[in-house]
Design brief:
Layout lengths: L8 H6 L3 H8 L3 H15 L4 H8 L9 H17 L4 E4 L6 E4 L1 H5 L4
Antiparallel strand pairs: 1-2
Helix pairs in contact: 4-5
């Protein structure tokens, strides 16, 4: 397994590789959570596959599809268990993610 090393933003700017640098790092966790909440508020109950489709392009480019999927699953779990901002309704292929009442009280930043 190769280690994940990132050059600093300053070095990326000097090398004229800012775009690939940002793409390699992906978005911060909080931004990803905001995208999920925005999507669920706008479109309602959503299967995990659609949330993966929403987020995959925002995750670090060097992650495999399996690692991206795990990252989405972990993020949804944190939002469900710790943040209490979303919940899953149903099981298996018919399950859907929805916003909780608490998430509607918290404004998106």
């Amino acid at each position: 397994m190769k280690p994940h090393y990132f050059i600093s933003a300053k070095v990326a700017a000097a090398m004229d590789t800012e775009v690939s640098h940002t793409r390699s790092k992906g978005l911060e966790k909080q931004k990803l959570k905001e995208f999920i909440l925005q999507h669920l508020r706008e479109f309602g109950p959503t299967p995990r596959v659609k949330l993966e489709e929403l987020l995959f392009e925002m995750l670090p480019a060097d992650l495999t599809e399996k690692k991206k999927r795990n990252k989405v699953i972990n993020l949804l779990t944190v939002m469900r268990t710790k943040d209490n901002s979303i919940m899953v309704v149903g099981k298996g292929s018919i399950s859907r993610w929805i916003c909780t009442d608490e998430s509607f009280k918290k404004p998106l930043k």
